[in-house]
Amino acid sequence: MGELELLQAEVARLKAELAETKAVSQQYLQNVAHQLTAPLGSIKWSIEALKDERVPITRKGVLLRSIYSQATILVHLIKNFALMSNLEADHELGQFREKPEPIDVMRLAINLANDFQPQAHDARIKIDVDNDSFKRVFGAHSLKIEKNLVAQAVSNIIENAVKYADQDTTVLISASSKGEHVCIQIESLGIPITEEEKKNIFQRGVRGQSAKQKVPAGTGIGLYLASRVMKFHGGHIDVETDGKHSRFTLVFPRNRLAKGH
Fold first, then answer.
1. What is the pTM for the complete model shown?
2. Superfamily for domain range 99-259
C-alpha cells in the first residue's frame, strides 16, 4: 500500500472515530437531560403541593422529605456529571484534585448515609453504619484522602445500593482490614449481579440487565467514576456476590492512615 493509500485509510479511520464519538456524546447528553429532568420535576411538583393550603400538615412533612430526597439525587447527579466532564475532556484526575487531608472515615460514612436516608425511607430501606467496625479498624487514625472525590465514590455505591435493594432490607456500611489495606464496605440485598456482569461492571456506560429492568433510566458512570477515584488513591474496589447479597469494598493502602482526626 502506497503512502497516499495509507493516508486515505488513516483519514477514513479518524472520520469513523469522530462519528462514533459524536454519537456517544449525543447519547450521553440526552441521558444527562433525562436524569436531571426527573428530580427537578418532582421538586417542582412537591413545592406546588406545599403551596396548597388544603394539604394537611402531615402530608406537607412527606412532601418536604421528598424534596430533600430529590435534591440529594440532583446534587449527586451534578457532581457525577461534573467529574465525568473533566474525564471526557481528557484531563487527568490530578489536575482538578484538592490536596489530600486526614479524614475521619466513620464521620464521613455517617454523613453520607444521612444524605441518602430520605431516599431510603421512601423506598422502605434502612441504611445502617456499623460504628464499632470503624472504631476497630481505624481507632484513633484518620485516612489521608481527597475527601470530595472519595465521598463521591462512596456516594455512588450507596446510591446504587439504595436504588437496587429490596424493600424492607438494610444497606450496611462498615469497615474492615485486609493485610496491608483498610476498607470501607457497602452491602445490600437486592437485584443479583452475575459473574459476567462483575467482569465489566466498572466500565463506563455498563449496566446489568436486572438493573436496567428495575430502573430503566441510568448513565452507567457511577461505578466507573468510583473505580477511577480509587485507582487515583492507589486502591481499588472489590465486588462479592452471593445470590441477592452484594458487597462492594473500597480498598485503600494502609500507608494512607494518619494519626488523629
1. 0.72
2. Histidine kinase-like ATPase, C-terminal domain (3.30.565.10)
